[in-house]
Structures are given as structure tokens and as C-alpha cells.
Design brief:
With about 70 residues, this protein is α+β, with helices and mostly antiparallel strands. The protein is about 35% helix and about 25% strand. The protein has helices spanning about 20-25, 50-60, 60-70; strands spanning about 5-10, 10-15, 30-35, 40-45. The model has no long low-confidence stretch (mean pLDDT about 90).
Amino acid sequence: MRKRLTTVGKSRAVILPKELLELYRFEDEVEIEPTEGGLILRPARKGMTFEDARAKLFREKRDLLQRLSDA
């Protein structure tokens, strides 16, 4: 499938057909993964990213992690 880029403000966008949105269950957010040959576009996973979960863990369990590293 070939799609034309659309100008949105100072950016460019691809408009996905309703059939693809429904087929792949796209909602409000997508994940874009750069690859050597182009981009992979997939529906965003629900919940926290790994980075957010790691930051939360270190923030909430800092004392415990410090005691474990000192042991």
C-alpha cells in the first residue's frame, strides 16, 4: 500500500485507512520503531514503559536497594 504524506502544521503525517486502524486495533497512541529498512508502526501497549517502571521502582524502593547493595 502506498500513501501520500500530508502536511500538518510544520510536520508531516500519514493518514491510515479505517480498515487498518480496526484490523491492527490502533487507538490513540502508536509505537514507532526505527529499523535499518524503515519504520515499524504498532499499537501502543497499555501501561507503563520499561523506563517508567524502572524509574518508579528505584524511586519507591531506594532504601531497600541500597541495603541490598551494601550486603
